[in-house]
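Put briefly, the fold is written as integer tokens. The lines below illustrate.
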Amino acid sequence: MVPVSISPCGPPIPYDLSPMDPNLLARYQSSSGAAAYRRKYERSWIRRLSNRRELAIVDRALDRAAAAGRVLDCPCGAGRLTPTILKHADEVVCADISAPMVDEAREALAPLEQAGVVSFAVAAASDLPMEDDAFDTAVCHRLIHHMAEAQERAGVLAELARVASRRVVISFSDDSTWKGRSQRRRGVARKRSALMPADLFAEAAAHGLTPLGKPLRLNGFHSLVAVAVFSVGSART
């Protein structure tokens, strides 16, 4: 059976699962994997601290983007970022390729859904069933570091640029950090793909995305995580 994305915005749309590791996808799309992911950032004080710092950097990125109105959170995972996004947005659409993950997010964010400020869709970031310019800002957090090839990332960048009218916020593994340079010197085998900011900017430019300032780093010494903010097309304000 060919997987399909399901959304209230339109009919099911087929998508290709190939850009990501199949074992990772199988775990991510399972009920047990989704439940474990929801608890991931609560397992230790280090993870809780890392989560607070990560949410803070996303908050700063949304400030830089001047995000407002309707915002896309894709992939939304178990809804971890959504309350932070709602500090800036009037409404958040949470989308994820994993139906069990969307179920976890819906459970975690039930009061917000009841308040009418959050809605959900099962959808791949590379094949979003939303109209052009459907959102003020599109947020894509912790996805493209799973994609080793530029062609894989291009599908996601193109869709984010299509559905966002003003801004796109993307996290990536920043190879220019101290940790990135150290790993390269030592020849460390990586489980995730890291990019130099200039390379990400060049890939994004092919889809009309212009960086707004330098990437915001979580912690360049201990972490590769960084967040970049882009202007869409001619949207410069």
Q: What stands out?
A: Residues 1-19 have pLDDT under 50 and may be disordered. DSSP finds nine helices and eleven strands in the chain. Residues 17 and 25 are 8 Å apart (CA to CA).
